[in-house]
Each structure stands twice: as C-alpha cells, then as structure tokens.
Write a structure and sequence with these properties.
Blueprint: H1 2-30, H2 40-63, H3 65-69, H4 75-79, H5 108-122, H6 124-128, E1 129-142, E2 150-153, E3 156-163, E4 168-178, E5 181-183, E6 186-188, E7 194-208, E8 211-219, H7 225-228, E9 257-268, E10 274-281, E11 306-313, E12 321-332, E13 340-353, E14 356-369, E15 375-387, E16 392-402, E17 415-426, E18 431-442, E19 448-458
Antiparallel strand pairs: 1-2, 1-3, 1-19, 3-4, 4-7, 5-6, 7-8, 8-9, 9-10, 10-11, 11-12, 12-13, 13-14, 14-15, 15-16, 16-17, 17-18, 18-19
Helix pairs in contact: 1-2
C-alpha cells in the first residue's frame, strides 16, 4: 500500500511537472521568438521566465504534498483551486540582427548652428531684419556773427538691413535729427525740436556680380564720398562731410539723394576691376525759391528725369586704390523762372588702407538758363589725408567751392575755401573722440574760425 501511494505521488508529481512544462512550451510557441541573437536583454528575459516556472512548480508541489508525503493539507489549501496560468504578453522581436551604430553626437558648434538656423526659421524678425545704430554729440564754437558756442546732438542714425533671400535685400537709414530743418536759410519748425527723415529706402536685387538693380531712395553716385560715407560721422575720419558733399538740408549744392532706380555691378572681368552705376530718378527741386524739402520723394516738378552714369576702377595691382568719373544731368524748374539745365561732372582718386587714407575729388557744376545765353560754372574740390598711429589718427583736409555771384540756383554759396586739421582717437571699437579746427575763407567777408569736439559712437 505504501508503495502504491509513493508511486501515485510520483505519477501526480510528474504529471504536474509535465503540465507546467507543456504550458510553458505552449506559451513560448505562442509568442514569437524574442530575439535571434543573445544579448543581455534576452538573457534577462529568459531568467525571468525560468524564475516564474520554478515558482509555479513549488506551488504545485505544495498543493499536492498530502498525496505524496501522507500529510493532510490544511482546509484552506484543499479548498483553493489551482491557479490559472496566464499567457505572458508577446514580446516584439528585434527586427534585424544588423549591429546598431551608436548615434553621432553633434559638437557644441554644430548644435549651436543648428539651433540658430532653426530659431531663425521660426523667428522671422530675427531672420530678416538687422539694425545698427550710430550717433554723435558735439561741442561747437566759431567767430561768425550771431553764433554761440553750444552743445548739440548730431544725427541718430538707425541703419536697417534685411536679407530677404539670396537675391533680394532691403536697406534703409532712419535718421532722428535735433534742431529745426535749416534749408538754405529757411527755418522749418521750432528750434530745439526733433525731426525724422527716411534718408535711404532701397530694395535691391542682385542677379550676379555684373548686374544688380535697386529701387527707392538712395545716395546719388556722384564721386566717391557720397556713396562711401553716409549719415554716420562715426564711420568718417573727420567731424563731418566736406562742404562739397554736404546734405541738401545743410545747404549743400549737390543732389545728394535720388528717388528712382539704378543698375550697378562689374563692367568687365579682369585685373582693372571696372564697375559701373546707371541711375534715373526725380532729381531735386530747385533751391530758388527756398523750399522745405529739396528731395522729391513722391512727385516730381517735371516729367523729365535726372540721369547719372558713373564708371570706376579698383585695380588688383594696387589694393585700396579707386579712380572714377561720373556725369549727372537734370533739369531744374525754379518757380516763376526759366528752366535751368544742370550737368555735373565729377572725378575722384582715392587710396584707402587700414591705417592710411588719401581722398581727392574734383567736380564742375554747370547751369545753363533756358532761352538765354547765360551759363554758370561752379568748380569745387577737396583733398584729405590721414594716417593712424595706434589709437590716434591725425588728419588734414583742404576744400574749395567757388560759385558765381549771380548763380541762378544757389546764389548764396559764393566762395568757400580753407583748411581743416584735426585728430581722431578711437577710445574703443565703438566710440571715437575727435577734435577739429576749421578756417573758412569767404568772398567779401571776414574768414570764420571754428573748433568742434565730437563723440561719435555705434551700437
């Protein structure tokens, strides 16, 4: 009898073990193979399944212990049914046995560039518009009758650019200027006030090095200074522009600004570095009678347009050298006066290097009164030289303008000639201090001596 009980217990035990193994193998057959190549994850998964099987075997042994050892199981154990075996959740197989390459970690510079590119694509204002600011503060005194020694705020210039694509670019200069507009002796607005002018406003399309097109308001390509130095004194060596290239609202005799369109680019390939500029625009209003805005921004006083053609060379053999010539033609329409044809011929030769500059320009402004034999010629020139020694750059300039007394467009100019001497000190990369002395000889008047101290800066 005892042998029968032991034999029955063994049968039950092996039957239970067979059922467990059969269920386990069925579960393995039911699930797809977890991986085709052993790795640490697969080993951990197999060990977990072995632990589960061992636990189930121990549970079955406990439940069937009375049949084997002759002990009576507790009522609670006898009353409990066998635990239901649950199917393990299928494990997704590894798709391919190909070794996985470790991910490439970008460098800090590459990550910064990627972040910048992404932020610029997302932030349109950062992508398109850039603003650079310029300003200056002056202390000026001279011995001209009625003048006083005063501090003054120079132009606050916001230079705005926008690269809209590889071909299109926009630029403008928004200038806040202290004091009333003083146009040829005519005061427009209260003293000590501020005015705002859009000095440049250009949309530019660049097809290649040989052809670019711009439309809007810009600086006329007469000579060199007018397009090399704009409304920022910080960019200039001296405290201000030569009188020959003074702005219209400061009494200048040239059409500094032009509203219209232009083409420019390289003229021919080669070592001479030939370039061209062709411009057409409204031109300027006549200075006589006095007007508040000589630049014709919206409408023109005549159907005829002003034309300007300039050619210049930048030879490779002499770095920093530029020579050129320009011819400007327009028709001025003074109120209640005959029309006046204007032709301006200008030539320049400049040498610009990091620590040395030599600027030379000469021009002739010719006015012919329609219906009369009268022709008036106004010649002018200036020469400027400077050299830098460390943070200091001393400079010298001589200028000359001689307009006839009965000139129909600017009879108030007359003769203006004299030297300027000064020094510029670059206090930092963004701040420059200047001190300049000027002597101006006038026709049938006493000469004027003036001293100007200036702080120019960019931000």
């Amino acid at each position: 009898m005892r042998a029968f009980q032991v034999g029955a217990g063994l049968v039950v035990r092996w039957a239970c073990l067979f059922c467990v193994l059969s269920g386990a193998s069925g579960s393995w057959l039911y699930a797809e193979q977890p991986c085709e190549q052993p790795d640490q994850a697969c080993v951990q998964l197999l060990m977990k399944r072995i632990d589960q099987l061992e636990t189930r075997v121990r549970t079955l042994e406990t439940l069937h212990a009375p049949a084997v050892s002759g002990f009576t199981a507790p009522p609670s154990a006898q009353a409990q049914p066998l635990p239901v075996r649950q199917q393990p959740a299928p494990v997704a197989p590894i798709a391919s046995p190909v070794p996985v390459q470790p991910p490439t970690v970008p460098t800090e510079s590459e990550q910064a560039q990627a972040d910048t590119a992404m932020s610029e694509r997302m932030d349109m204002s950062r992508t398109l518009m850039r603003i650079r600011g310029f300003g200056d503060v002056n202390l000026h005194g001279d011995n001209a009758p009625g003048d006083t020694t005063s501090f003054s705020l120079g132009q606050l210039d916001l230079f705005v650019t926008s690269d809209m694509s590889d071909k299109f670019r926009f630029l403008s200069e928004i200038v806040f200027e202290a004091g009333p507009d003083n146009i040829y002796g005519y005061i427009d607005g209260p003293e000590n006030s501020f005015s705002v002018d859009i000095e440049r406003y250009l949309l530019q399309y660049s097809y290649n090095d040989y052809l670019s097109i711009a439309a809007g308001r810009g600086h006329t390509s007469i000579g060199y200074y007018n397009t090399a130095y704009h409304h920022s004194t910080w960019l200039q060596t001296t405290t201000g522009r030569p009188y020959l290239f003074a702005f219209e609202d400061e009494g200048g005799i040239l059409p500094i600004h032009n509203v219209g369109a232009s083409m420019f680019g390289r003229l021919l390939p080669g070592p001479l570095g030939l370039h061209y500029v062709a411009e057409v625009g409204n031109g300027r209003e006549s200075r006589t009678p006095l007007n508040a805005e000589p630049v014709q921004n919206e409408i023109s006083d005549t159907n005829g347009k002003a034309f300007n053609l300039a050619v210049f060379a930048k030879p490779d053999a002499v770095p920093g050298l530029q020579t050129g010539i320009s011819v400007y033609h327009s028709v001025l329409v003074p109120q209640n006066e005959p029309k006046v044809g204007e032709v301006i011929v200008a030539a320049h030769a400049v040498l610009i290097r990091p620590k040395y500059e030599w600027l030379n320009e000469v021009l002739l402004d010719r006015h012919s009164v329609a219906g009369t034999p009268y022709v008036f010629h106004t010649p002018g020139f200036y020469s400027q030289v400077s050299e830098q020694f460390g943070a200091y750059r001393p400079y010298f300039r001589y200028q000359y303008v001689n307009a006839p007394d009965h000139e129909p467009i600017f009879p108030d100019v007359g003769l203006r000639a004299g030297p300027s001497v000064g020094i510029r000190y670059d206090a930092s990369d963004f701040v420059a201090l200047k001190l300049q002395y000027d002597h101006t000889t006038l026709r049938r008047q006493s000469g004027i001596d003036a001293i100007t101290a200036q702080i120019g800066f960019t931000f």
